Amino acid sequence: MNFTIRRLWNSTVISNHSPIQITLSSTADRNDLLVEINAPFFNDPAPAMTPPGPFPELWNYEVVELFLLSSSTNHYIELEFSPHGHYIVLLLIDQRKTLKQLLPLPDYRVEWLSGNQWIGRALIPRAHLPGRMDRFNAFAIHGQNATRTYEALYPAPPESTKPDFHRLELFQPLNFDLLLNQSEKDGESWNNHASHLGSLSVSLLITLFHVSFIWKISF
Fold first, then answer.
1. In 94-213, where do the E strands start and end?
2. Degrees (nearest 5) of the Cα angle 80, 99, 58?
3. What values do phi and psi take at 113, rounded to 5?
4. Are 11 and 18 in contact (CB under 8 A)?
5. How far is CA 4 from CA 50, 140, 154, 210, in A?
6. Would you tell me how many other CB atoms lie within 10 Å of the CB of residue 31?
7. Residue 30 backbone zone (phi > 0: left; psi -120 to 50: alpha; other: beta)
8. Which end of the chain is more exposed for a tag (fewer CB within 10 A), N or C?
């Protein structure tokens, strides 16, 4: 399944760069979701002094985002991917209520086609997905300060006052059954406390890396 982001968050047509493209597919057993992003690079700085992998509040950087929703439960997963190899995975309930975050992915890789075009490929395990997904939206953020830009696959109406990626009513139907063997139940990460502890461990490792790096360059 292929999608192209052609509009800003308020439905204005994008005309100053080639559009961001997203492809959804699945592993051979139809259990796990595969995401591919083909996007221009806007030369935003990477998160400072951190290796690729999970990174908190990645939405403050250059990212492409996917939201996958089960409308029967209002459970949804937020996936954000950076051209610098960082990502963040959040599990949310209703609107913007975070259940878990910083969940690890088994694979996320970035390939550079040129100095200004990148491809990101990620594997999203079934354990992270909500049950019976049926709606979808995608977004992109780039630029800094006054040039900060918000783009949307399914944007808000022109009269909207500010970007809000958690407006679930704007998500559009998607038949995930064409991609995955879906379950009626949420994946294990939604109710497995070990997953939450794992996310905390990742956050701790990031903090320790920061401290270690700063100590080394200070002395």
1. 97-101, 107-114, 117-124, 135-142, 149-152, 172-173
2. 25
3. -80, -30
4. no
5. 30, 11, 10, 36
6. 16
7. left
8. C
62-120: pLDDT as tens digits: 999 999 999 999 999 999 999 999 999 999 999 999 999 999 999 999 999 988 999 99
> Which is higher by pLDDT, 207 or 178?
178
What CA–CA distance (Å, rounded) separates 92 from 69?
9
Is residue 127 helix, strand or coil? Answer: helix
Q: Which residues contact 212 (CB under 8 A, 6 or more apart)?
A: none
Rounded Cα gap, residues 44 and 187, in angstroms? 34
Max CA distance (Å), the chain:
56
Give whole-number Cα distances, 58 to 46, 64, 161, 188, 210, in Å: 10, 10, 23, 24, 16
Q: How many helices (H) and strands (E) does the chain have?
A: 1, 14
DSSP-derived pairing of the beta strands 53-54 and 86-93? parallel
pLDDT-derived band at 49 (thresholds 50, 70, 90) equals: confident
Residues β-bridged to residue 5: 20
Residue 28: other Cβ atoms inside 10 A: 6
Q: Which two tokens stand for residue 53?
A: 């992998």
What Cα–Cα distance (Å) separates residue 3 from each residue in 12, 54, 131, 149, 163?
17, 25, 22, 19, 20
